[in-house]
Amino acid sequence: MKILVIGSGGREHAICDAFARSPRINRLWCANGNGGIAEVAECVPIKPDDVISLREFALEHKVDLSFVGGETPLALGIVDEFEAAGLRIIGPSRAAAQLEASKSFAKDFMARHGVPTASYVTTHSPSAAVDTLEAGQFGDANAPVVVKADGLAAGKGVVVAGDRSEAIAAINEMTDVVGAEAASTIVLEECLFGREVSLLMFADGEDFQLMPPTRDHKRIGEGDTGPNTGGMGTFTDASLLSDDLISEISNSIIRPTLSGCIAEGFPFRGILFLGLMMTAEGPKVLEYNVRFGDPETQAILVRLETDLVDICEAMLGGRLSDLDIHWRPGSSACVVLAAEGYPSKPRTGDVISGLDAAAALPGVKVFHAGTRLGENASLLTAGGRVLGVTAVADDMQAALSTAYDAVERISFEGMQFRRDIGR
What we know:
423 residues; Rossmann fold; 4 domains
């Protein structure tokens, strides 16, 4: 088979790595890839949001299966374009991708289908959002409020404000942070309290199969301080969700979501990501993502034992319920190494050393998020999040310890990372 993975980050490196383990593949491309992905796939110089050029590449090279990594091409309708051309592709339709591409659409969808979530108000300009807060719709001035830009914002469009004045400041800064289009509509939500967990699944339109539960660490600083990022580390562990909680989430959230998608004319096929808060009232949805998370993917896919090609074909054929998906027992952890200046203005172009020594440790995979090839086969930093140092082991503490042992072997100028992942 010939496979095309679309994207260029650590998530796509992990997806390519999983595909590369399949004996069914004889050619693997990634558009547009990065320095680490080039070790397992042929990198194609087409940007992930250039939907038409990607479609033409897939047709010309007779690609058997394409897999979309990120949210932007999905929101642009890449699945619709590929399927109209007779191409097989993993990902939701443009209509289904609205569950991530528009926060207001997602909140209204949850309200229509009885999916538990935070109470909210949708406003159609930053000034209207400020007026809503000043009118006292979210309690007193000291009450925390969640401010969300409606559109895609690369993980930077959500601010958990401690009080009304902080929320107003976040609204006033939102356009500069995420752009005018993403911030043209702003959703204000009550702040939920509890334990945060992410639960991802494969979905074939009607049925689903769950992946190991995971927890991400979004803020740049230890102790969950500083601004939000795309994610500074994650871990998987069975202790995150009991069997009873998984059953409750399946019945109160997953099944109503999938049946709601069918009822509204866009059956969900692909990867569905639930950001959940385990509140005193039960599990509630913080957000939907319509693709693998980053860095959740790195920690999840290192535990996958079933051939990813078989899973993709089961999704496409509506046969997920017939497939047994096996995961390596134990736990995994991913620690993100970021560039100096991230998440605002990351410094790039620094030489990375120690990768071979880190990867030589048992159970370790080093996934490249923002790297490029330099002179004399050197690897250079080329983005804010540079590497995802990932380890799998028999329990969570062993996975974390191994991941941090690997981190100590890697260096580049200005390298920053959190030392409290999983703790």
